[in-house]
Amino acid sequence: MTERAQPQPPSHPEGVGDDTWLDVIHKMDEVYSQLLRDEVALEQKNAQLEASQQFIYGLLSSMSDVLVAANAQGLIEQTNQALCELAGRSEDALLGAPMQALLHPSQDGAALQDMMHRALTLRQGHSVELMLSDAAGQPVPVDFTATPRYDSRRRCIGYVFVGRPTAEIQRAYRQLHEAHEALKRT
Question: Has this prediction a pTM greater than 0.70?
Answer without folding.
Answer: no
